[in-house]
């Protein structure tokens, strides 16, 4: 949806100056969409309150959260899903093409990835414990062990913009794993969930 809304068209300039605010749990596809459009990208911690604060410092920016939250600074500093729906509807009218055709075009430009979030109710984990979990994830998936400390958690990377982010839940008290794979959830996702449970 975010890649859809970033699809450039003249009237969008009234709302969007090219700066994309996103939480660290958003997938690699959003990063690719921003880069493809030549947009500046600002990454925040999880929670729309962080996006709202970042939006206020950048007029006409757009904010994207991983659970479908969207906001447009020129309209409000809060999430505004109705504006996102109206923009998507306007885009369909502008292009005069079926939604499936537009999405296929975006996938051809940016590639396909599937974002999945799971939650593991685990006791408090030290940084060393989290690194062991990431090592298990990387090993089970055959990914290189490259651990990056993000603004809100730790991330490992696989080929084709695949990744897995591990962070403590700020609402449930468990551990959350956000994984992005380049095909429909299947064996790879099962491995990620199994490694997380172990």
UniProtKB/TrEMBL annotation:
Pfam families: PGM_PMM_III (PF02880). GO terms for biological process: carbohydrate metabolic process. Gene3D superfamilies: Alpha-D-Glucose-1,6-Bisphosphate, subunit A, domain 3, Alpha-D-phosphohexomutase, C-terminal domain. InterPro entries: A-D-PHexomutase_a/b/a-I/II/III, A-D-PHexomutase_a/b/a-III, A-D-PHexomutase_C_sf. Residues 14-105 form the Alpha-D-phosphohexomutase alpha/beta/alpha domain. GO terms for molecular function: intramolecular phosphotransferase activity. This is Alpha-D-phosphohexomutase alpha/beta/alpha domain-containing protein. It comes from Sphingomonas sanguinis.
């Amino acid at each position: 949806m975010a890649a859809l809304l970033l699809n450039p068209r003249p009237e969008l300039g009234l709302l969007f100056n090219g700066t994309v605010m996103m939480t660290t749990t958003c997938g690699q596809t959003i990063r690719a969409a921003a880069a493809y459009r030549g947009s500046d990208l600002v990454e925040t911690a999880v929670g729309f309150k962080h996006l709202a604060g970042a939006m206020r410092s950048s007029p006409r920016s757009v904010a994207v959260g991983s659970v479908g939250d969207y906001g447009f600074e020129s309209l409000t500093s809060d999430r505004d899903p109705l504006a996102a729906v109206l923009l998507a509807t306007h885009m369909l009218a502008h292009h005069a093409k079926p939604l499936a055709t537009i999405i296929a075009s975006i996938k051809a430009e940016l590639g396909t990835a599937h974002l999945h979030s799971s939650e593991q109710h685990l006791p408090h984990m030290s940084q060393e414990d989290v690194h062991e979990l990431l090592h298990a994830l990387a090993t089970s998936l055959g990914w290189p062990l490259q651990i990056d400390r993000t603004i809100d958690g730790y991330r490992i990377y696989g080929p084709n913009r695949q990744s897995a982010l591990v962070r403590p839940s700020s609402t449930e008290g468990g551990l959350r794993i956000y994984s992005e794979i380049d095909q429909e959830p299947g064996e790879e996702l099962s491995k990620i969930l199994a490694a997380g449970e172990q």
